[in-house]
Amino acid sequence: MKLLILNGPNLNLLGKREPTIYGSESFEAYFKTLQDKYTAIELSYFQSNIEGELIDKLHEVGFSFDGIILNAAAYTHTSVGIADAVKAIETPVIEVHISNVHAREEFRHTSFIAPNVKGIIAGFGLKSYELAIQSFL
Ligand code: DQA
């Protein structure tokens, strides 16, 4: 099974960025623990701060992978382009958020992506990604 974790803007700073909200572990370290635990899955990871690169990656894997775990970060709340890409591809997408976006500012309550995804997991810290992996098993 081939799964991609796709992270959007500012998530390269996990571990350093607002640790009270996003925790103190880097995504690279967390990703390694996931790879060690889920050895039967071909797990890949891509992060970009650039909207078009995230769209390109969705197009690249979206007709061959078994699942995409997408944390579009701030683009969740703004990007028609990413929402359209999620709709355009065949691979099922799970939307994840580290924080509980619904317990935060009003603008984080809107997701352009949500209508086009299989499901949404939010608020479990980095564990949100693992729960998304498990949803594909
Ligand atoms: C986030 C929540 C978004 O509102 C925010 O812009 C992020 C991270 C999360 O994982 O909790 O960058 O997607």
Quick structural gist:
It contains 5 helices and 5 strands.
Plain-language structure description:
The structure is a single chain. The protein has 137 residues and is an alpha/beta fold. It has one domain: 3-Layer(aba) Sandwich (Rossmann fold). The protein is built from five helices and five strands. It has helices spanning 19-22, 27-37, 51-61, 80-88, 127-135, and strands at 2-7, 42-47, 67-71, 93-97, 119-122. Strands 2-1-3-4-5 form a five-stranded parallel beta sheet, with helices on both faces. Helix 4 links the parallel strand 3 (67-71) and strand 4 (93-97). Helix 3 (51-61) packs parallel to helix 4. The protein starts with a strand and ends with a helix. The structure holds 1,3,4-trihydroxy-5-OXO-cyclohexanecarboxylic acid. 1,3,4-trihydroxy-5-OXO-cyclohexanecarboxylic acid binds next to loops.
What is the quaternary state of this protein?
single chain
What CATH architecture would you give?
3-Layer(aba) Sandwich
Helix- and strand-based class? alpha/beta
Number of domains: 1
Q: Helix amount, in percent?
A: 25-40%
Helix count, DSSP H or I runs of 4 or more residues: 5
Sum up the overall morphology in one term: globular
- SSE string, helix = H, strand = E? EHHEHEHEEH
Strand percentage: 15-25%
Bound molecules: 1,3,4-trihydroxy-5-OXO-cyclohexanecarboxylic acid
- The value of Rg in angstroms is 14 Å
* Corresponding CATH superfamily: Dehydroquinase, class II
